[in-house]
Each structure stands twice: as structure tokens, then as C-alpha cells.
Amino acid sequence: MRDFRHAAAAALEAGADGVEIHAANGYLIHQFSFRTMPTNARMATGVRSRIEFASRSRWPQESPRKIGGERTGIIISPGNPLNDILEEDVDDLYSVLLRALSPLGLAYLNVVHGGNEYLIDAIRRDWESPLLLNRRGADLETRIHDVESGLADVITVGTQTLANPDLVERIKNGSPLNEPDRTTFYGGDERGYIDYPTMEEIRYPSYQS
Question: Which residues are marked as active site?
């Protein structure tokens, strides 16, 4: 926890406006803070599991307390089996976390959608700060509906942004999107990161640098 608090403070000292706590996708905080299998084999159930989870959920709360909630966001991925994570009692466990985070006045909550519509509705109902939502693989119409219906305040995208350096313009113009090449993810070089063409480069290939 000390290292995370120090990293958050150092980021602000270096000029960052804020930090995002990555408590999702099977990374370290997710592994430790959530009752997961097989990475975390704690098998407590019922009341005991909620008490145990409340204790372990202290980690995501440390950075906001160090640098201020208004400069801190957090990303979670309820029920997403990323990096071999398997969660149980998702609704109960995340409600404990959100109750712990709510008093901290976080800048936002970023949710990677795991397909549990009831849980997303509950988070929206109980979460007062801005809610960011990432529906992995959802079409544009679904994402727009999430904002227009009030389910989310902001829609976040990952791979589509990576594959389309001019994503905003493509969406505005209704242009087709580049397909992400997943074979290049985490490849260690520039391939798949800075070589996707813009619509302008596709129309006028001779102007590509």
C-alpha cells in the first residue's frame, strides 16, 4: 500500500492532474482485494466473506486518502474473467466496495462491463459521482444509448481507440473503423500501436509519411 500511495503522490508532483486506481482485469489490487479463484483461494462465505472483503478493500481506498478523492478515479471489472480471475458473490462483494468508496468523493468510477445488467443498474443508482462505462465489444448504438438513457455519464473505449487514431472523426462521419490486430498486443514494438491508418491516409495513401 505504501508504494501505491507514494506512486500517486509522485504522479501529482510530476504534473499529473490525477491518478486512476487499477482495481480491475486481474491485476494486483484486483487479485488481493476481491475474493477470487484461483488466484485468491479464500473461501469464506456469508457474513464472514463480507467482513473479510471489507477489510481487504482497504487497499483501493489508500490513494484517495493520500492525494484526495477529487483527484482519484478507480476502474473495476465486476464479473469479468480476465487474466484467469473467477469471482463469486459479485453483487454482494462490489456493493461492499462501493459503500466504502462513496464517502471518499472520487472523481469517477470506471466500470468494465461484465454482462451483469442488474449490477450496473445498481451501481448507477447508488453511485453519485460520474460513472464511466466500458462495454467491451459493444456497438456504437448501444454505447450511445447508455449515455442517453442516463446509465453512464461517459463511455470509454480501449482497443477501438488504439486501432483508430481518428476515432472521434470516424464516429462523427459514420466512417468504418479499423479492426484491432490482437496478435500485436503487448508485442514490445511499434506494430499495432502507431501504424493504424487514419481515414485521410486511406483516401490519400501517397501522403502517408
Answer: 27
pLDDT band of 44, cuts 50, 70, 90: very low
pLDDT in tens, 5-43: 888 889 999 999 999 988 888 777 777 766 554 445 444
Q: Which domains does the chain have, with CATH numbers?
A: 2-156 (3.20.20.70), 159-209 (no CATH)
Task: Find the radius of gyration of the CA atoms of the chain.
Answer: 19
Measured distance CA(149)–CA(55) in Å, rounded? 35
pTM, two decimal places: 0.79
Cβ within 8 Å of residue 20, ≥6 positions away: 72, 73, 74, 75, 110
